[in-house]
Amino acid sequence: MPRIFWSCMRIDKYLKVSRIIKRRTVANEACDAARVTVNGRAVKASYEVKEGDVISVTFGARTLKVRVLSVKETVGKQNAAGLYEVVEE
């Protein structure tokens, strides 16, 4: 029977791997403070991100909205922006 691998990852780790937020602990704190939403709903750090999700992150007065294109465990610094597309800034 073939194994099916779902491409999903915790949102705090995704924010770090994609370099939207520099450190995972900061991403975790942002989720706890309800500054991170997925598809319009506030989520906890344990939320499993999937391709196609729309993530909004509030940095003070600025909000960044991105669509998840790919979920990868590791990615080089130069390829990190390829994991998502900016919908609204």
Describe the structure.
It is built from 2 helices and 7 strands; from the N terminus they run βααββββββ. It is globular. It has 89 residues and is of the alpha+beta class. The strands form 2 sheets. A 5-stranded antiparallel beta sheet has the order 3-2-5-6-7. Helix 1 (11-17) packs across helix 2. It has a single domain, classed as RNA-binding S4 domain (Structural Genomics Hypothetical 15.5 Kd Protein In mrcA-pckA Intergenic Region, Chain A), CATH 3.10.290.10.
Write the layout of secondary structure elements.
Elements: E1 8-10, H1 11-17, H2 24-32, E2 36-38, E3 41-42, E4 48-50, E5 54-59, E6 62-68, E7 84-88
Short description:
This protein has helices spanning 11-17, 24-32; strands spanning 8-10, 36-38, 41-42, 48-50, 54-59, 62-68, 84-88. It is of the alpha+beta class and 89 residues long.
Keyphrases for this structure?
globular; Structural Genomics Hypothetical 15.5 Kd Protein In mrcA-pckA Intergenic Region, Chain A; alpha+beta; two-stranded antiparallel ribbon; 89 residues
- End-to-end separation in angstroms reads 44 Å
Could you say which overall geometry the principal axes of the C-alpha atoms support?
A: globular
- CATH class (first level) name: Alpha Beta
Q: What is the alpha-carbon Rg in Å?
A: 13 Å
CATH level-two architecture: Roll
**Approximately how much beta-strand content do the residues carry?**
25-35%
Helix content: 10-25%
Count of helical regions:
2
The strand order across the widest sheet is: 3-2-5-6-7
Superfamily at the CATH H level? Answer: RNA-binding S4 domain
CATH fold name, please?
Structural Genomics Hypothetical 15.5 Kd Protein In mrcA-pckA Intergenic Region, Chain A
On the 0-100 scale, what is the average pLDDT?
A: 89
Biggest β-sheet description = 5 strands, antiparallel
